[in-house]
Design goal:
The structure is a single chain. Helix 1 packs antiparallel against helix 2. Helix content is about 65%, strand content about 0%. It starts with about 30 loop residues before the first helix and ends with a helix. It is mainly α. It has a domain at about 30-95. The longest helix has about 35 residues, at about 65-95.
Length: about 100
């Protein structure tokens, strides 16, 4: 035998809740993130310079690895410059806004 459907047996459908943003710590502000990225780019450039020096002094013969490391550093630096340019453009736009 089938049980009859009783009103109120099924809970009402509620709209989905918006996702809660991940909690941010004091260290995860924009300045800290930017500083960390600058340090990474600096480390990549140092690694590339070391690779070139090793190649020139004969410590390594693998030109491919040196080229890859140097290219990685170049791309990271180019990206950093583009981010800086976009930030400057945004600052200029905000500065020119009339209140």
């Amino acid at each position: 035998m089938v049980d009859p459907i009783r009103p109120g047996a099924v809970p009402p459908v509620s709209p989905p809740r918006p996702p809660t943003p991940a909690p941010t710590t004091a260290d995860e502000n924009f300045a800290a993130l930017l500083r960390r990225q600058l340090e990474q780019v600096s480390a990549l450039q140092s690694e590339a310079e070391r690779g070139v020096q090793d190649l020139l002094t004969g410590k390594t013969q693998d030109i491919t690895d040196v080229f890859v490391v140097a290219r990685k550093a170049e791309i990271a630096f180019s990206l950093l410059l583009e981010i800086r340019n976009k930030l400057l453009e945004a600052y200029t736009e905000i500065k020119n806004l009339r209140v």
